[in-house]
Amino acid sequence: MNKKVLYPLLVLALGLAAAVLIAINQPEVEPEAYERLLSTVRVMRVEARTEHLEITSQGTVQPRSQSELIPEVSGRVVWMSPSLVGGGSFARDEVLLRIDDADYQTALTRAQAALQRAEVEYEFASDELKRMQSLRGKQLASQQQLDTARRSADVAAANLAESRAALDQARRDLERTQLRAPFDGLVRNEQVDLGQFLSRGQSIGTIYATDYVEVRLPLAADQLIYLGLPTSTRGEIAPALRPPVTVAADFGDARLLWEGELVRLEAEFDERSRMLYGVARLPMDVNGEDALPVPVGMFVQAEIQGRKVENIIRLPRSAMRDNNQVLVVDEDNRLNFRHVSLLRLEHDDMLIDDGLAEGELVCISPLQTVVEGMRVNPFIEGEQAQ
Questions:
Q1: pLDDT at position 32, please?
Q2: What are the φ and ψ backbone dihedral angles of 24, each rounded to 5 degrees?
Q3: Which domains does the chain have, with CATH numbers?
Q4: Are 71 and 224 in contact (CB under 8 A)?
Q5: Residue 386's pLDDT band (cuts 50, 70, 90)
Q6: pLDDT at 2 (0 to 100)
């Protein structure tokens, strides 16, 4: 037989034999049960706790006590304190400015002389009245003479009172040539210079006290209930009821905090913003050499500690579904919808006061599709729940 025909036939026969052997000896496949792939979800265990509700707000720091420096007498400035500059610090009763007092010294001397003259005239008129009363009793003086002496004594008494008042006025005017600080504080600004003539009532600067500062904080109507104050509270808040306030400001990469308290609520709501303003007071005297006092004029954020609530459950907002529902994972790792009572939303969390039991697992993963009773693979803080 021709080799060109024999070799292909031989190869074909060997192939058919191999195929038959493979078909006869193929392994048997045992069917396995279908196992559904479960979705992995993050869960939180319900823990009820007692918390203080927080109200956030913001405002600008302002001094509690601020005064205009206004001279009560006129004159030329002959001396100024080195502290009387923008940002200057001074103590209570410290002299900040002196006005030329030469004219007021002269006025004081004249007032003293006028008082001496009035005292002499009053003494003479009093003695004269007593003498006339004695002579009238002995029928040695007429009634007209007695009336004249009495009138002279009354005029002298009035002149004496007027002279004493004039002397007091002269002394006060002399004292007012020195402008003294009414409190410990700082100079906000000044508009006066040495040699300048000042008129009475002219404003020459602004100063403020450094004991306390205040921040006006706008509060919405629905936030007032969280303060824990009586709804009728307006004006000064009783010291025992004042909510603590924490004020924060950023200085570069550092965030500084100051502690104070809410001391009063203003009388009415603002018509434009529909807000009621509360006033927080913070001490400027801060302990520690490196501590920074609260800067006046700075915009700050504030957190007001409100009323205390018990048996509150805090969950992230991602746990909330439609219609105030959350997903609870039961003992069989199945998801179940549960209606809850939402107390309030706070930053990225929500506070729940009813609807969940201690120890239950709540799903906090943002699932797209959820079916009641769906099995899941829950994880609690990286550990698989059993």
A1: 64
A2: -70, -40
A3: 41-50+310-384 (2.40.420.20), 55-64+212-309 (2.40.30.170), 74-100+177-210 (2.40.50.100), 102-176 (1.10.287)
A4: no
A5: very low
A6: 63
